[in-house]
Amino acid sequence: METIAPFIEVIDEIKEAGGEVFKMCFQCGLCDAVCPWNKVRNFSMRKLIREAAFGLTEIEGEDIWRCTTCGTCPDQCPRGVKQIDISVALRRVATEYEVFPASVKSARTARASLISEGNPLQGDRKKRSDWAKGLSVKPFTEDMEALYFVGCYLSYDPRMKKVATATANILNKAGVQFGILGDKESCCGESIRKTGSEEVFKNLAKQNIKTFIDAGVKKIIVSSPHCFHTFKNEYPEFMVNFEVIHMSQYVLELINDGRLELTGDYKEKVTFHDPCYLGRHNNVYDEPRDLLNKVSGLELVEMENFRSNSPCCGGGGGRIWMDTPQKERFSDIRLEQAKEAGAKVLATSCPYCITNFEESRLNLEYEDILEVKDITEIISEML
Questions:
Q1: Taking each helix axis from N to C terminus, what angle separates 247-256 and 158-173, rounded to the nearest 10 degrees?
Q2: For residue 63, how far is the Cα from the chain centroid?
Q3: How far from chain centre, in Å, is Cα 296?
Q4: Within a domain: residue 163?
Q5: Do 278 and 228 touch, CB atoms closer than 8 A?
């Protein structure tokens, strides 16, 4: 009988990269049962963890890049295994050796753009605030109520610029004294960290932290759950703490405080998709729904899976930059659920979710069946 000896050097590298938690796994397989990948193809997180424990992981393969860091498996794991940490640790090893399968190479382009321009979309840093031209949006100063951290997708992506515009409209209508950083703003670094590029993340974080401190920032409003999570939970690693609030929470506060009044009737059936980094990772479930329920005439319906059981759109863990075959897209499943719920509008609060849902809407030919909107777009229409 052949005995397979662990590759000690590989195990040590995985441990050093943050993957020692695989020791806790007793191979029950629950992670495989709840993983969204197994709705579209075969994938075993259990196997990945077992191979890592013996130093037998194929870092050249695609499996270590599949995890979207949605948080479903650690949320359900009876042993408290942090599967996301293991996936990221394996990616750090692959990144160190510059080993990337074809489907992941686009993430390398994103990394290069982050290093050179501070965003993953190859956008000119000097044009980061072009979306705000003509919108009465000012540069941030220390005497303002809050910094609006726009984020990369809302700054550069044509579809997502509409969300930035709607957000600015809401803040101006409520009389909020806010400002933006313009070309001084850099990517929060969340997604590139999840692809294993730890040093790139650290550099981006340090740039932003210095900018925040120099500008006198105390309160940060964000549109992206990924920025929300990073500023709230990961930047404190650098011994700083800022007050961070997601836009869905902040707009609800503005309404409840009497600073923002909604007018008119929406008269549409709407369903809400919980972004992973807003819901499972940060337990923000009620505020987006409470906000939608403030809209007169809007009928809020739930899909088959919602709140903590909401499936991932497929964009987390840096997969927003990677190639996913059309038949393996989680976002297609979500749009089908929205249609089955009888909704005419699929609302959410995440640029990655919107990007994937819009693509699925075209692929499924749902353009005349379902609209995809950020919550702020709905609220802006009611002002």
A1: 20
A2: 20
A3: 29
A4: yes
A5: yes
- Tracing tokens 């980061």 back to the chain, one arrives at 128
Q: What is the DSSP letter of 314?
A: S
CA trace torsion 322, 86, 196, 182 (10° rounding): 80
Give yes or no: residues 274 and 239 share one domain.
no
Between vectors from CA 145 to CA 223 and to CA 152, what angle results, nearest 5°? 25
Backbone CA torsion sign across 204, 205, 210, 215: positive
CB 147 within 8 A of CB 179: yes
> Per mean pLDDT, which range of 36-50, 338-352, 353-367 is the poorest?
36-50
Asked if residue 188 lies in contact with residue 204, where contact means CB atoms within 8 angstroms, the answer is: yes
Q: Measured between alpha carbons, how far is 356 from 353 in angstroms, rounded to an integer?
A: 5
Global confidence as pTM: 0.94
Domain assignment of residue 223, given as a range:
115-254
The answer to whether 64 touches 45, Cβ cutoff 8 Å, is no
Domain assignment present for residue 72? The answer is yes
Q: What pLDDT digit, counting tens, does each position of 195-227 carry?
A: 999 999 999 999 999 999 999 999 999 999 999
Flag whether 2 is in a domain: no
Give the C-alpha distances (Å, rounded to integers) separating 33 from 29, 72, 83, 215: 7, 10, 14, 47
- Which residues, in sequence order, are CB contacts of 173 under 8 Å at separation 6+? 260, 383
